Amino acid sequence: MTAPQQPLVPPATAAVDVSALVVPEGASLPWFAAVLEHSEVALVLAQAQGVRYANPAARRLLGWDGSPLEGHQLSDWVAPEDRPRIAEQLRRRLGGQSGQFWEVQGLRRDGSRFDVRLCGQPVVVDGQPADLVTLFDVSETRQALRQAQWNAELLDHSEQLSRSGSYVLAWPEGRLRPSAGLRQLVGTLADAGAADPDEAWAWVAPEDRIRVMQAWREARPDQPFQLQHRALGAEGQWLQVVHRGVLHTQTPGDTPQGIGLVQDITRQHEAEQKVQTLAQYDVLTGLPNRAHFIQQLAARMQIARWDRSGFVLTVVELPQLQELRVTLGHEAAQTVLRTLAQRLQQQAQEQELVARVSGQGLALMGRAAPEVQPEAALEQAHQLRKWLQAPMLIDAAEVLPRCRIGLAMFPGDGQDGATLLEAAEKACALADEAGGVAFARAEAHAHALREMQMASALRHALERQELRLVYQPQVSLSSGAIVGLEALARWHSPQWGEVPPTEFIGVAERSGLIGALGQWVLDTACRQWVTWRAAGLQAPRVAVNVSPHQLRRGDLALAVQRVLLDTGMDPRGLGIELTESAVMDDPARAGQALSELRALGVEVALDDFGTGYSSLACLRSLPIDVVKLDRSFVSDLDSAPESMALTRAILTMAHGLGMQVLAEGVENEEQLNLLRSKGCDLIQGYWFSPPVAAEALAERLATGWRLAARHLSRDDGRRTLLLVDDEDNILSALRRLLRRDGYEILTARNGEEALRRLAEHPVDVILSDQRMPGMTGVELLHRAAALYPDTVRMTLSGFTDLQSIIDAVNEGAIYKFLTKPWDDDRLRAHVAEAFRRKGMADENRRLSTEVETTNALMAHVNSQLSAALDRQREQALLLQASVGGVREILDSLPLAVIGVDPDGLLVYANAQAHRLFPPETLALGVPARAGMPGLASAGSQEHCEIQGQACRVWRHRLGAESGAWRGDVLICLPISEDLCHESA
């Protein structure tokens, strides 16, 4: 029999210990009455037929003082909802079972209720079984417990609502006891007994920890302190908190205790910071705004006046911003502007400041210099513009920003910040007519006057036949033949001499003369082609550029047909070139016009490809024969890996759509070889020929003018090996060794020479030394990997930095590292394996190209499938978010919630359960009876003991109403030990 726990009544009133009462055999009712009459504990003797005896203490407790209770039922004195329990407990006692303490709602004679604790003991009275029931009034204790629980819940809710937490600090040991709110706010805390400052204050940011501990060391009783610092949040994020503390003493002479309050003010702090930022900085770019920038300009001007220096103010505008908003959307346009701002920041040097000064304008305040050179400033501005206008990839569309730059100089263009900035902005407005960059000087007016005069002169030039055409060949890289000629207009003005095409064509566009100029070029080129054919020359196709104005007019095909009929030209001898931006301005209209041209038999080319923002879907729908790769890509092929990557992508895309690719602006052999190695079809540029007059061109065509065979695309099965070493004897030894394997061997003595060999010849395998003057082997192979990724690259060295080799191998720049001195047979085997690897890669690329063509046709189906999957994924995310929300709600409850499945396995425990019970008892997936037998067997609203903790348990059966039982949810409320003791 288990010894009873200490009862709730005071010890002085426990006159009769019922559990220790020795009842003689055959005891009668008078015997019990004599024993129990003077007990201060309420005692009732009940049998099946009703109450046989109630002592005075019981009558007083139940409100029947002075009145007999005999003949009543025990259940008459409890609330109706508890009467079944009373009857069941009485039945057990009459059956001889020992009882334990349990609580019900008592019912007094006047109908008032009170909390009563009962415990029955089976006895025999007059030979009949009876239940000796002990009653304790626990109303005050229970009310105090309820009030304490309410106070604790009120504190928890208050802390949650105010995003705060509190703690008690034992003084001076430093042990910290946190509240539940503080645990939820800052996550994992040290145990309540931890006195190590590193553990107790681990949630305080390291840089603030000493400050917090110092505040407590200097604290005085009843003198609060306050400070702000960072704290590590429950989810691992940094919070900004206000931390208040005070030393409090309950009675004089006692050791004080520290009381701390920590409140999360992160949002308030961020809002204050944001307000300060918004006042001086632009939200989109994070740059200083106009007002702040003008203040900085004024400060810079004052310094410049003191040291008699000057500086340049640069304003960069993106005039196509509104156009981008219409075509790509607001967010994409904002992304373009943000990227432009980032690029400008990257170019800014020390002591230079970048700002956003208007909706589409950025500004750069240059460094002060004793003397500002306008020529140098102009050159730097052009370089900056080129950098800023590099292509961007925005939402799968390639965009080439079109920037204009205005320059103003201090002190010449303004004496205060606002005036100087306005001068630079006015210069921006003139930049379009000045090649993209303009100064804020009187020369701008002269430029505008010159344009007016030039527009008038150009109108007369068409009438006076001052214009002429020259033709630049377009060459096939597979046959070497000249397959096309681009007709280019030239103007020799009696007033200005040779006027650059970039200047007079811009004037024609702005003055409305571009239509007449375009018609003249088309008519003249067609007549020249007919003349060549009449002279017996096999004249190639002539390509004519068409302006956006001609395309927008809507009768382009009709105008071309009219010229073909007038001149008698074969339509197959004519090509029409339209710029990418002109086509993308109105893809539907452009598609119709191009289809009509194709129906005539005219070839259609897309000019300046890569400088706009055309999409793959638009290109697939347009009848285009040739894509002309813009010269901006070609010029950087041998120096910028990103240009090579974009070129490869364009070639793959165009070939996948059945189009040829023509590269413009080929200026040297290195560019030619790179384009040829990537599968480019056609080239055009000064390397092969500058634009040529019609008469000179006829003479060259008559001689069979073509590209030399050594420059053509190779498919002859040759295997080329490039050896790179700065020692001649090493190169000679390697040549002798590897020549027997039938390789075509090239040699180079340094990295620069090796790059020239790669540009001049198609190379399969590179074998390079590591330590060489100027450029190491790793650096060489890194550049080769970027420019010629199809090569197989190996290094052969006896002296090297092993780590750099390992890094290069891991990054894919080096295929294999070999050491000197080498074994001849093994070296030959390694080289042979490299060529086998190259052959397999070439075959894979060929197959990949074929697959890409098929993939392009399946793009639409894939996009539809992707959209369907996105919808399913979104639904799954919504469901996941819902489940996460339920878990968050359960974790916030102050009650322990535990889930048990139909097989009795533990499947869920909320945060409070983990705080209440040891971790080993809450292992998910194990039988609940194993870790928590008391909980698993507890009924609804019963008391039980779980791991030494007295609890009250509520059980809810999931699906019980529908008949599909899915398990149980158990809610546990811990109670004090003196409210739930067991008795024999």
Automatic annotation (TrEMBL):
Signal peptide: none annotated. One of its GO terms (biological process) is phosphorelay signal transduction system. Residues 309-444 form the GGDEF domain. Pfam families: EAL, GGDEF, PAS_4, Response_reg. This is EAL domain-containing protein. Residues 51-97 form the PAS domain. InterPro entries: Biofilm_reg_signaling, CheY-like_superfamily, EAL_dom, EAL_sf, GGDEF_dom, Nucleotide_cyclase, PAS, PAS-like_dom_sf. The modification 4-aspartylphosphate is found at D769. SMART domains: EAL, GGDEF, PAS, REC. It comes from Ideonella dechloratans. PROSITE patterns: EAL, GGDEF, PAS, RESPONSE_REGULATORY. Residues 451-705 form the EAL domain. NCBIfam families: GGDEF, sensory_box. Residues 720-835 form the Response regulatory domain. Keywords: Phosphoprotein. It comes from the Bacteria.
